[in-house]
Amino acid sequence: MVKRPRGRPAGSKNKPKPPIIVTHDSPNSLRAHAVEISSGNDICEALSDFSRKKQRGLCILSANGCVTNVTLRQPASSGAIVTLHGRFEILSLLGSILPPPAPLGITGLTIYLAGHQGQVVGGGVVGGLIASGPVVIMAASFMNAVFDRLPLDDDESASMQNQQYYQNGRSRPLDDIHGLPQNLLTNGNSGSDVYSWGAAQRAMSKP
């Protein structure tokens, strides 16, 4: 008997794998945007129009530039609304903007500003936010959002664990179980309100 040598034959190598090509974005993926708003335009209105026309929600991450004549709501002053006259530099701009339909209380912007004497003011934006010079905003957009109510009760926690079990590929797909498209189940929680603004799927599913 001839003993067979161990290992690979001389000159053999791994076969090259074909490249992975993504032909379209997932509805649950985030997309980065650098948005420039020209002087004299309302920042809130421009972002709302952008969100509505693109049918994507926006998560505002940062902003650079100046604004003028800002109206703010300051919770520390019992919800008082103050109007600041003059030109202010944006230190921070955060918030989210969702196209309709969207739950109340989620859409809104919070801004912190520096005045010409170094004073820092901030609060929730009420009304217009007029750009004084070009304003550049970094934002992330998305097509789906899930509205959760916390804390979860025991039944919802167990349901969430079961769906995570299914998502790991140990049982049949979620869309066969719940009758919902896979892209609407963004966090695996059937006890959530799912809001989708896609052109093909304009749905609002509630438990």
UniProtKB/TrEMBL annotation:
<dbReference type="InterPro" id="IPR014476">
    <property type="entry name" value="AHL15-29"/>
</dbReference>
<keyword id="KW-1133">Transmembrane helix</keyword>
<keyword id="KW-0812">Transmembrane</keyword>
<dbReference type="InterPro" id="IPR005175">
    <property type="entry name" value="PPC_dom"/>
</dbReference>
<feature type="region of interest" description="Disordered">
    <location>
        <begin position="1"/>
        <end position="21"/>
    </location>
</feature>
<protein>
    <recommendedName>
        <fullName>AT-hook motif nuclear-localized protein</fullName>
    </recommendedName>
</protein>
<keyword id="KW-0238">DNA-binding</keyword>
<dbReference type="Pfam" id="PF03479">
    <property type="entry name" value="PCC"/>
</dbReference>
<keyword id="KW-0804">Transcription</keyword>
<keyword id="KW-0539">Nucleus</keyword>
<comment type="function">
    <text>Transcription factor that specifically binds AT-rich DNA sequences related to the nuclear matrix attachment regions (MARs).</text>
</comment>
<feature type="domain" description="PPC">
    <location>
        <begin position="27"/>
        <end position="164"/>
    </location>
</feature>
<keyword id="KW-0805">Transcription regulation</keyword>
<keyword id="KW-0472">Membrane</keyword>
<feature type="transmembrane region" description="Helical">
    <location>
        <begin position="120"/>
        <end position="142"/>
    </location>
</feature>
